[in-house]
Amino acid sequence: MRQYELMYILHPDLEEENLEALVNRFRDLVTNEGGEVIKLDRWGRRRLAYEINRARDGFYVVMKFKARTETADELSRVLKITDGVLRHIITREDQ
């Protein structure tokens, strides 16, 4: 298993329970595929550097996890098709 870092920005108009549901959904996707979430850090609402889909703010979340490459690919696919996700990036951390 490799170590990854995922950063994603959620739409600021989502309600608190919808934010938590999305965060839990992405965390559970990793753990259900046999991965391990090392750290989940909610940065909260921050100003974006530029406007994305008419949004000036976003809810930032950073998750560090260990998983197989297939799990990271599936997580990226799910993030792309999920409403409410403005941007995401998954980077592999070298040891």
Topology:
Elements: E1 2-10, H1 16-32, E2 36-52, E3 55-67, H2 69-81, E4 85-92
Antiparallel strand pairs: 1-3, 1-4, 2-3
Mean pLDDT: 94
The percentage helix is: 25-40%
Poorly predicted parts: none
Order of helices and strands: EHEEHE
Would you report the number of β strands? 4
Shape label: globular
- Determine the strand fraction and express it as a percent band: over 45%
Describe it for me?
With 95 residues, the protein is of the alpha+beta class. Helix content is 32%, strand content 49%. It is built from two helices and four strands. The longest helix has 17 residues. The N and C termini lie close together (12 Å). The mean pLDDT is 94.
Summary of the model, kept short:
This protein has two helices and four strands; from the N terminus they run βαββαβ. The protein has helices spanning 16-32, 69-81, and strands spanning 2-10, 36-52, 55-67, 85-92.
Quick tags:
95 residues, alpha+beta, 4-stranded antiparallel beta sheet, 2 helices, 49% strand
